[in-house]
Please model this.
Amino acid sequence: MDIRTVDVAIIGAGTAGLAAYRAARSHGKTVLLIEGGPYGTTCARVGCMPSKLLIAAAEAAHMISLAPNFGVHAGPPVIDGPAVMRRVKTERDRFVSFVLEGVEKIPQADRLHGHARFIDAGRLQVDEHTIVNAGRIVIATGSSPQRPQELQAIGERLVTSDELFDWNDLPESVAVIGTGIIGLELGQALHRLGVRVALFGRAGGLAQLKDKAVLASAVKALGAELDLRLNTEVAGLTRDGDMVTLRSRSAGADERTERYAFVLAATGRIPNVKQLGLEHSGLTLDKDGIPLFDAHTAQCGDGPVFIAGDAASDRPLLHEAADSGRIAGENAARYPDVQPGLRRVPLSIAFSDPQIAVVGQTAQDPSAGRIVKGEVSFENQGRSRVMLQNHGLLRVFAETGSGRFVGAEMIGPRAEHVAHLLAWACQSGMTVAQMLELPFYHPVIEEGLRTALRDAADKLLHGLPEIEHCTDCTPGM
Model:
């Protein structure tokens, strides 16, 4: 058994672990990066990048089918499933190779392959070959997709996003269980690529939306295209040769029985912490077995253990993993001088069509004070109608008294770009009045944002009723 002694040991070499490694090394500490699986981040291998490659193919097919509405006739699209998946995997592997190139630049002496477990608060055992004595430890073990027990009886006909991107062809049909971001993105992409898809949601939610009006707009827009089964329970699954028989039951309706080639479990991801031996760490754990920690310092309790990224189950997004990894690495390096790090305004985007975005504080947050809501519908918004993308609703939230912009929810065209503008304004502490002083070109989607801000400003000043019509739809406004 080898013995290694280092200042900082980092468990996991994903986005958070790599950020923690760089931060700790920048303070001149000896650092050991321990990885039990293949190198390459969740984002590159099975998350952000391969999903966007599939979505890009779906968008190309969709635009062909939409073209006749502009008077452009290209004929029906022909979907070459093997070619679609070949490009997804080839480009995915390129993105992974970029990550691997970065890992290879880390000195070999700073890398250790194997699964780490706590022996006690300051010692780790890595497989059966190494004991690591560490002054500080960073847990950055990432997450894995849930595979609900009630779905596992169908064997390899059950897939998660981790397996889907290894398909060599597109299947005839897929039942998607879950209507969160992953379920919506992949379900709609597969549908547009000619796969028969139904999306099942046990409750009435979509993606990360909490505002009832925006959620209703999302259900209307996405439900017009997709076979969306909200408030529907999967009553049973049985294997039937190369197919799956699925029984479902929704409120007030008879049970339905249908057959699908695959079932995609899109029911969320769970932190990879159960095999770490945390019961030997001395840490206080929550009901899910995750160490209690401070989100601003990444510190678990008041000791020398830190947690970052998806393992913390705080904000499971790449940019958040990078931020929390950096904070964890810096504080591990300078422990016990632990200091709060920068946590940015929450920003979440679903790359459905229309896109969905949530920024900052929502009206339903427990900490939300008294707020007003300004809104705009994109159904008659000028640029949206020009592009035949006139679906959705934007609501902005402003604090009464101060007039400060605190957050927004939206479904609509180009939401990924509007959401960034809103996140920057929110993090800068801007008021609605200050945002309205900024330039808005014509005709652009952002004019819809101006309409929503004007609505909020009117309510802040006078408590006027909500707008009834989009005011940016004609030139000269």
The first strand starts at residue 2 and ends at 11. Residues 308 and 324 are 5 Å apart (CA to CA).
